[in-house]
Specification:
Strand content: under 5%
Largest sheet: 3 strands, antiparallel
Strand order of the largest sheet: 2-1-3
Mean pLDDT: 87
Helix content: 55-70%
Structural class: mainly alpha
Radius of gyration: 22 Å
Bound molecules: zinc ion
Shape: flat
């Protein structure tokens, strides 16, 4: 019998991860509880192998162009770096594909960091902290709730993501204090909306939030 230490449930058959939390499971696998269907022709492992193969060709081509240009084509160097970022993102996205809210949360935070780096590398016009981040931080909980409601999830199942969104959005204070963000209205408005949203959840959905947090922290 396999068990999930996080969800504290027993799992029949031979599973690779917990069907509830997608986390690691312990214990001895048994014969499958249900008939196992033959694997699809192109599974995600094959897909990722194809991606890695194309990635290596791409990196070799870009590396060659960069070397042949006498290290003058800066775009080829950037192409090499973004190729590495891309392959890491594909790997994580495949890993998180079973949990759409976790995937979208990860991609949004990943995008925010990447946009910030691009901003810094291309002259520091602060478009990331001025416009991209304020909009992304407000859209993320909206999309999370829309997915949660349409997938008929209980609030307990996604409240932690909302909490993380609210806390992460407060990071927008840093570029304001440091002076990098010189047009501060969108960021301040964004944080204000998130505070009101957090207040709503804390006051009217307190019970759900406590349940979600204790479930997540395995208390
Ligand atoms: Zn679990």
């Amino acid at each position: 019998m396999q068990v999930c230490p996080k969800c504290n449930i027993k799992i029949r058959g031979d599973k690779r991860c917990c069907p509830l939390c997608q986390g690691n499971i312990t214990g001895e696998p048994e014969d499958n509880a249900f008939k196992v269907l033959p694997a699809r022709k192109v599974n995600t492992v094959t897909l990722f192998r194809i991606c890695v193969f194309l990635f290596i060709i791409y990196e070799v081509v870009m590396g060659t162009i960069y070397q042949f240009s006498g290290y003058r084509f800066r775009w080829a160097l950037f192409a090499i770096i973004w190729g590495i970022v891309g392959i890491i993102d594909i790997r994580v996205a495949l890993y998180l594909r079973g949990n759409i809210i976790k995937l979208i949360t990860f991609e949004t935070f990943f995008g925010i960091i990447i946009t910030y780096i691009i901003d810094r590398m291309t002259g520091g016009y602060a478009f990331s902290v001025t416009w991209v981040n304020p909009i992304a931080f407000v859209l993320l909980p909206v999309v999370t709730v829309i997915i949660g409601v349409s997938a008929k999830l209980r609030i307990v199942d996604y409240a932690v993501y909302l909490l993380v969104d609210v806390l992460a959005s407060m990071s927008q204070i840093i570029p304001i204090v440091s002076g990098f963000n010189r047009f501060t209205y969108p960021a301040v408005l964004s944080m204000g909306i998130m505070v009101v949203f957090a207040a709503f959840v804390l006051i009217f959905r307190r019970r759900d939030l406590i349940n979600a947090t204790s479930k997540y922290l395995n208390i």
